[in-house]
Write a structure and sequence with these properties.
Blueprint (H helix, E strand, L loop, with lengths): L20 E2 L12 E3 L3 E4 L2 E2 H8 L3 E5 H14 L5 E6 L6 H9 L3 E4 L2 H9 L7 E3 L6 H10 L3 E4 L2 H10 L6 E8 L21 E2 L4 H10 L4 E7 L10 H21 L5 E3 L17 H19 L5 E4 L3 H4 L3 E12 L4 E5 L8 H5 L6 E3 L7 E7 L8 E9 L7 E5 L20 E5 L2 E6 L4 H7 L4
Parallel strand pairs: 5-21, 6-7, 6-14, 7-8, 8-9, 9-10, 10-11, 10-12, 12-13, 13-14, 16-18
Antiparallel strand pairs: 1-2, 2-3, 3-4, 5-15, 15-16, 15-20, 17-20, 18-19, 21-22
Length: 457
C-alpha cells in the first residue's frame, strides 16, 4: 500500500522510548542510531521505519543526519585541518541539505560536473573549497568552474590542458592538479579499480604521460600546478595500497623538483574507503589510514629532501553510505522449484549497483514480528529485466508476504545518485531523520515530472 501524504506537514514523530537493544553493532551496516523497537520495527534517528513508510510511501530513502555529521567529524579528527583537506565526493549523493551539512562540518566538496557544482554553489558552498574532477569534462563544465572560481581543477587528459588554458582570463591563473595513474590495483570490483593503466582515468606514471602533462601545464601562464592527484579505486578496506600509492607519488614529486626546480605543495590521494554492506564486512580503518599515510609521506619527503605537501582525501561513500536506509514494500512472493523470489516496489531504477558490480546487501523485515525460521530468498525489483536483483541468497523469515516492509541498510551512496527512470518509474524521495523527527529533502518523482520532459508531438 502506498500512502500519499503532504510533505510540508511538520513531522509528528517523537523520540522512541529506550530500545531493548541496538541494531547497529560493531561491523554492522546500519547507522549507529539504529535501534530495535517493539513490534519488530527498527528506528533510525529515532524514527521507526514503518511509520516513515506510512507517512512518505515506498520506496523510500532515509538519511540519518547525525550519522553523516559524525562521519565528517571522524575524518576531521583523523586528518586535522592544519595539515589536510577532507573533501566530500559529491558523486556518492548530493542534495542541497547535504551540501549544508558538509559545509558546516568543515569539509570541502569534490564535484564531477557543472550540475553538481551549481547545486553546491547555489546552496551556499564556497567555490574556492570545491574541486572539479572528471575524465572527460565538457566545455560547459570547465567554463562554469572558471567562471565561479573553483579552488582546484584536476586535469585528466592532455586535451584538457589547452582547453582549460584558453578559458582562463588574461592575467589570472587557475589552480590545477594532474591526475596520475600510479599503477596500483585496488578495489572491490574490476569496474571500480582506477589505479591501473587499463581504465579510462588519469595519466600514466608508467608510460610517461603524467610527466609529459606536468611539463605542458608548467608552460601555461594561465595554469598554476599546485599538486598531484591519484585515486586508486573504490570499496578499499586495506591501508596498504594507499601507502604504496603515496610512495610512488612522492617519487614523482621528487622528479618534478629535480627536473623543473618546482616544489608542488599538494597531494590528493582520492577516496574509495570501504564500508560494511552486510554484517561482518571489513571496513577501512580511517584513523589507521591517516597515521600510516602521514608517516609514509613524512619519511618519503625527508628522503627526497622535500617539504611535506598538504594532503587531501576525498571520502564519499564512507561519509554518506552508512547513513542511508532504503525501505521497500513487498509486492509479490513467488516460489519456484528451487528458489523463492520476493519482489519489491523498487529495484534497479533506484539501486543499479547489484546489476553493475554484483554488490551484496542484507535486507531485513521491519514493521512486524515473525517467528518463522529464516529461508534463503532472492529479493528482486519490479522492472522488466532479469538482472533486476537487489539481493540474492539472503535470509528472510519464511512467512514473508505481500505488504511486508523490507529495509536495506548502507543505502546512502550510489543509489539515487545513479538512479534512472527505467520503465518510467519515478525516483523515490529522500527523508532526513534526526532526534525522532523526519523531514523531506527530495520529493518523489511523479509521472507528471516525467511527462513534462517529453515535449514531442
Amino acid at each position: 500500500m502506498t500512502v500519499v501524504t503532504t510533505p510540508e506537514v511538520p513531522s509528528p514523530y517523537r523520540p522512541c522510548p529506550p530500545p531493548p537493544r541496538a541494531a547497529a553493532e560493531p561491523g554492522s551496516p546500519w547507522p549507529t542510531s539504529a535501534r530495535f523497537v517493539p513490534g519488530g520495527d527498527v528506528a533510525v534517528g529515532g524514527v521507526p521505519l514503518a511509520e516513515a513508510a506510512d507517512r512518505f510511501g515506498t520506496p523510500l530513502y532515509l538519511l540519518d543526519e547525525d550519522e553523516v555529521r559524525g562521519r565528517c567529524r571522524l575524518y576531521r579528527a583523523a586528518f586535522p585541518a592544519a595539515e589536510a583537506d577532507v573533501v566530500y565526493a559529491a558523486k556518492a549523493f548530493l542534495c542541497r541539505t547535504l551540501v549544508r551539512w558538509v559545509r558546516e562540518e568543515g569539509l570541502g566538496l569534490d564535484v564531477c560536473s557543472a550540475g553538481e557544482l551549481l547545486v553546491a554553489v547555489e546552496s551556499g558552498f564556497p567555490a574556492d573549497r570545491v574541486v572539479l574532477h572528471g575524465n572527460a569534462k565538457s566545455p560547459e563544465d570547465l567554463r562554469t568552474a572558471v567562471r565561479l572560481g573553483v579552488g582546484r581543477i584536476v586535469l585528466d587528459s592532455g586535451s584538457e590542458i589547452a582547453r582549460l588554458a584558453a578559458l582562463v582570463p588574461h592575467g589570472s591563473r587557475q589552480a590545477v592538479m594532474i591526475r596520475v595513474v600510479p599503477g596500483i590495483a585496488a578495489g572491490g570490483h574490476s569496474a571500480v579499480r582506477t589505479g591501473t593503466d587499463d581504465q579510462k582515468f588519469g595519466l600514466s606514471l608508467t608510460d610517461g604521460s603524467a610527466q609529459h602533462a606536468i611539463d605542458r601545464v608548467l608552460d601555461q601562464p594561465g595554469l598554476e600546478l599546485v599538486g598531484l592527484h591519484c585515486h586508486i579505486g573504490s570499496q578499499i578496506t586495506s591501508v596498504k595500497p594507499y601507502v604504496s600509492a603515496v610512495r610512488r607519488m612522492v617519487g614523482l614529486l621528487a622528479r618534478v623538483h629535480e627536473k623543473h626546480g618546482v616544489t608542488l605543495r599538494g597531494l590528493d590521494i582520492g577516496g574509495g574507503h570501504g564500508i560494511a554492506y552486510r554484517p561482518g564486512d571489513d571496513v577501512l580503518d580511517v584513523p589507521a589510514l591517516a597515521a600510516r599515510i602521514r608517516a609514509e609521506l613524512a619519511e618519503g619527503c625527508a628522503r627526497a629532501g622535500l617539504p611535506v605537501p598538504r594532503l587531501t582525501v576525498e571520502p564519499g561513500r564512507a561519509i554518506v553510505g552508512p547513513a542511508g536506509v532504503a525501505v521497500y514494500r513487498v509486492l509479490a512472493v513467488k516460489r519456484t522449484g528451487t528458489r523463492t523470489f520476493v519482489a519489491v516496489d523498487g529495484g534497479m531504477s533506484d539501486n543499479p549497483r547489484p546489476a553493475l558490480y554484483g554488490v551484496r546487501y542484507a535486507p531485513r523485515l521491519v514493521g512486524r514480528v515473525s517467528a518463522a525460521p529464516a529461508r534463503g530468498v532472492t529479493v528482486v525489483g519490479r522492472h522488466c529485466e532479469a538482472g533486476d536483483v537487489l539481493a540474492d541468497g539472503v535470509g528472510l523469515p519464511g512467512d514473508v508476504r505481500q505488504g511486508d516492509l523490507l529495509a536495506v541498510p548502507a543505502a546512502g551512496a550510489y543509489h539515487l545518485s545513479m538512479a534512472s527512470a527505467y520503465n518510467l518509474v519515478g525516483r523515490p524521495p529522500v527523508v532526513a531523520v534526526a532526534d525522532g523527527a523526519a523531514r523531506l529533502l527530495i520529493r518523489r518523482e511523479s509521472l507528471d515530472d516525467l511527462r513534462q520532459r517529453d515535449v514531442g508531438d
